[in-house]
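REQUEST
  id: r-88c1
  op: predict_structure
  target: non-specific serine/threonine protein kinase
  payload:
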Amino acid sequence: MEEALEDMGESSSPPKGFGPPGVFDIKYDIYARLLESRNEEELLNSDFREQFMAHFNRLPPSYLLDLNVDRAEDVLLHQKILTEAKDPEKRPVFHVRFIKLDDLNVDVRKNLEDIEDGSYLTEALSVRHDTFVPIHEIIFSTVDKPKLLSQLSALLSNIGLNIREAHVFSTTDGYSLDVFVVDGWPAQDANGLSKELEAAVARIEGSWSGSTHSSGADKILAMQPKIGDWEIDKRLLKMGEKIACGSCGDLYRGSYLGWDVAIKVLRSEHLDEASGVEFAQEVMILREVQHRNVVRFIGASTKPPQFCIVTEYMRGGSLYDLLHKHHNILELSMLLEFALDICKGMNYLHQNNVIHRDLKTANLLIDEHRVVKVADFGVARLQNQGGDMTAETGTYRWMAPEVINHQRYDQKADVFSFAVVLWELLTSKIPYDTLTPLQAALGVRQGLRPELPENTHPILSDLIQRCWEADPAKRPSFAEIIVELEELLKQVKSPEETSDERRENANDD
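RESPONSE
  id: r-88c1
  status: 200
  body:
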């Protein structure tokens, strides 16, 4: 073993690829512990170090910082899981293990090694049998793809598990390694939980391999008879510069029949069934809605090989960019004007039975007259399509608790998201910026909300708090919010500066 450690550079500078000193120390400790547990035959295997290094090189630095040096064997387990995930027939690969019992009554946490002591376990369970909660760890690996985290968390929730921690990593060659620490399984029974997971995964056939390009294209091709006159002539569409990249496609500026347009192009490598459904859904909704506070639909191309959606180009960019990239602090009057624009667009959508389901500042665009318009209907849904909506859809930092909990939800889920947008307009901060998106979602489920600034106008503060109520029934509708915001705007602006005048000027230009 000493020779193997010397090969690592024990008495010299860290070997190439081991990163900065702190990172090298962690890798070195893990490597040393793994060598201690290997037999001589394995030590003589010259591939051991190369495989070890290759594993870390394909994962982000945050993976290394998440490892427990005392559980160095986890690295080998992760290597094995990632290797198995390369086989399409095995995906998703998952591994379940019991970690510990949590005592709900006292601040004592026993590790698995302690719990395996029979005397402790017998005595503890005889005293407080119902206060111990089994904690399990579940590791997943499959082809990385957009919204995989949402799919996995929904899967765990559907079998009654509560996610305590989530550690999510993507490899450089397109695979995921996701580690969840959960409770909710009633016994120290990793095998039973593994079988339940296997059954749950089987119920979602065809969505794991990442090889459903044809079904995605089929979803789009099936809508061709419905799109009619909205089908654009791609020969007249001129593509310009790329202005944004999304999870499933790219956004370009361009022109079409004299219009200055934005062109959302669906990338072929992401054309699976889910993205095909989202594309078709967005086109079907956009062609039905026309309002000054909803981005204008120009047309779409539903003919292969390239699928795209064409909308008006919004010169002002998104509210997200305005607040977080350009670091603008809004005056209250402008904040209220923006908020009213959003409410009027959302009220129109709700009147037409459209639930947006992903309302956030990145999906709110500004035109050259500073009018805000609601955009991006990829996950929107018509409320009268039938069936209860319980799927986890949207973006965690803006997501309503009933959506996070996979409960039935309605238009009031958009009102909750609007409250977070209002907070964002007030503070110019990203919601829950010290938390990961999943940590934020878990916090919201337990009652966490962003902290309102002390100098917030009391009427606005009260409105925001009512909009993000845990009980959807207590949240106001967008029609009611409009009345309150218009009254507040009258209080803070002089008559000649009202939002009506701003809109009249916009119409005259």
